[in-house]
Amino acid sequence: MLTEDKTMQAEEVIKNIIKRINSNSKKGKDWNNAIQFVFTDSDPYWVKISDGKVEKVEKANKKQDAVVTLTCSVDILQKILDNELGTVMALVTRKVKVDGSILAIRKLRQAVGIN
Questions:
Q1: pTM greater than 0.85
Q2: What share of the chain is helix, strand, coil (3-state, %, to 5)?
Q3: Mean pLDDT of 9-24
Q4: Can you tell me the mean pLDDT for 61-65?
Q5: What is the pLDDT of residues 21-44, one digit of tens each?
Q6: Rounded mean pLDDT of 70-76?
């Protein structure tokens, strides 16, 4: 069951990701892909990136075409963004599931400025 608090927290996490990608757009100026964030405790989001900037964001009630799909809780993604949880540790401990291109994950990490 989705709670209003988690929905609002997910929206803030996605806004933070958008802000970070757009502020680092020079690093990904040739990046043209979509990423899907599937939250285990909130609505999923689909983010389309063109020339390193976020072009479109949608709440995605179903799986959409994406170069990579990240599945985790809102709290885990927030901890990763805050550098409280490393991406490798999140993967090894299975707190995050990644489906898709590892290269896209590397670009996403660079774009949002995480380790």
A1: yes
A2: 40, 25, 35
A3: 94
A4: 79
A5: 999 887 777 888 999 999 999 999
A6: 96
> Which pLDDT score, from 0 to 100, does residue 2 have?
67
Q: How many CB atoms within 10 Å of residue 11?
A: 16
52 has pLDDT over 80: yes
In the sheet with 33-39, reading across from the earlier edge strand, the strands are: 53-59, 45-50, 33-39, 68-72, 97-100
Residue with tokens 């020339």: 51
The domain segmentation of the chain, as residue ranges, is: 4-112
Angle at 34 between CA 29 and CA 35, to 5 degrees: 110
Tell me the C-alpha distance between 53 and 9, whole Å. Answer: 22
Distances (CA, A) of 86 to 2, 27, 48, 65, 78: 26, 21, 24, 27, 11
CB atoms within 10 A of CB 23: 13
- 55 with 22: CB under 8 angstroms? no
What is the CATH topology of the domain spanning 4-112? Nonspecific Lipid-transfer Protein; Chain A (3.30.1050)
